[in-house]
Structures
1.
Amino acid sequence: MEGIDTKRWNSYGRVRSRRLTDLQRKLWSVLLPSVSIDSFSDLESNTQTYRDIFVEVGFGHGEHIAQLAAQSADTLFVGCEPFVNGVSSLLTKIDALDIKNIKIFRGDARLLISEIPDGALSGAFILFPDPWPKRKHIRRRFIQKDTIAMIHRKLKESGVLRMATDHPAYQIWIKELLAQYTKLFKVNFSDSANRPSEQSWPITRYERKAAGDILYVELVKIGE
Ligand SMILES: C[S@@+](CC[C@H](N)C(=O)[O-])C[C@H]1O[C@@H](n2cnc3c(N)ncnc32)[C@H](O)[C@@H]1O
């Protein structure tokens, strides 16, 4: 399809699965150019308008970011997602709910986050990241020491990082990793029986399909 560059980043995963509907194709050519960014510097004028900036890594079909953005018009949400059908789903929600405070980065969230000035980010979300269960693929997991350290640097004091996964091995991986960060973050774990409120933490498509127990993690930055 013209105008869609699916080769700009090797995501290790699928970048497109379904044909887009006519409405989605229209939104891709009419709406996407005004909401899409290629780098954090494209947000310059927006950073003065909005009090807080939040980033969602791998927003999938956009349920979480769209609901939060619709609830908080004074906050800017930047969604990162290379998956074409996911971007199309989010465009449909932005259009239907007339959302003005979402920008979309169609690439590797690490590139976007690395460009954010230190201490400028109010929060980040990494919900149901691909678990890469095979041992030889573990380095592909998004949640790594380097990524957590980078997000910590970018967060403001009291800034928040939320993560969730239903994958048992990824849950252990996250808990082990975070044991090294107790001086830098206040760490709070919840499980499916004590799920955070849907209003503050909207449910994603992946979460609805999740079979096992879910680990919800909220980190609040407390130190440098
Ligand atoms: C398992 S899906 C979860 C989607 C959504 N968060 C949910 O809960 O429904 C993981 C998503 O992360 C995206 N993704 C993987 N690596 C990424 C990266 N480095 N930057 C941005 N998105 C990424 C994938 O394209 C995929 O859509």
Note: The longest helix spans residues 84-96.
2.
Amino acid sequence: MEFVLVLHNLFRWAVVVLMVYALGRMVGGLVQKREFTGQDRKALSWFAISMDVQLLLGLVLYISNGWWSTLPGGMSQSAVRFFAVEHLFMMVIAWVLAHVAARGARVSRLAAAQFKRGALLTGITVLVILLSIPWPWAASHGRPLFRLAELWWGGLG
Ligand code: HEM
């Protein structure tokens, strides 16, 4: 499942770009006091869809790499606890929040209320995601920023 790991690693950047774009539109709309447009709705939807893809890839990894079977014995090792519990739990919360934000954008509301709701929900989601990514500088569970070496020089099992 090395290929899925590489995909999950790289697709994270699509999620990060789309979440920053969605948050930027929500905060920008609030500040500029403009109309809530179809493009704002789409920005929230694209972010939610990218989370669907990442959730699917993550679940494949979770099952195929047997993270579920490391519990409950592995709870005392921080790397195991991170991937088997914390990453899964926090990212599922982020996935739900991204969908709540995208769904709410389809209900008709005053533009200011729409942007405020979108900014709040997307802002919390962005925080949860940024705190739950295994950044390389995390001592116990750090992972590379880009798994490009595996793509170019093989090693994909
Ligand atoms: C939504 C539910 C998610 C699940 C169930 C999930 C699951 C997992 C699992 C099981 C691993 C460990 C891979 C291994 O077996 O070594 C992993 C790694 C990782 N996840 Fe997630 N994940 C999810 C969402 C996300 C999101 C939203 C992001 C970032 C936007 C993300 C970024 C990463 C990164 C960067 C790694 C390290 C990959 C590597 O080793 O190169 N995950 N994830």
Note: The mean pLDDT is 94.
3.
Amino acid sequence: MGFMKSSRHAALAIGGLALAFASNAVLADSAGKWTSGKEVYDKVCGYCHEPNPGLGPNIKGAHPRDVRERVRQGHRAMPSFRQSEIDEQALAQLIDFLK
Ligand code: HEC
């Protein structure tokens, strides 16, 4: 009986952990996968737009309208990004970061 009792406790504890992980995943999803505009810049834009390698021009201080247009539509060597890659919230944060 002692065994049954403790294994039920263990199962409860594991169930609680799984629940904690699941709700964390939901939170992370609803908050988007990017945490800041800087993160998007560092991990995506900076790859081409940092002075080194400097494939694209410096975009810090670029006009918000231009950033939005380039990100969604691309232009020549500049690729476009979909909502699933950079969601609206992240784009707004990114534009803010670049100001
Ligand atoms: C694969 C490399 C690459 C990545 C990644 C990239 N860009 Fe670009 N981008 C370019 C190139 C190359 C140009 C110049 C294109 C042209 O006009 O011929 C450019 C141009 C631009 C321009 C126009 C700048 C100007 O002065 O004309 C903006 C704004 C811009 N990119 C924003 C972004 C943002 C924001 C991101 C991140 C979400 C990003 N780019 C990611 C390569 C890249």
Note: The mean pLDDT is 79.
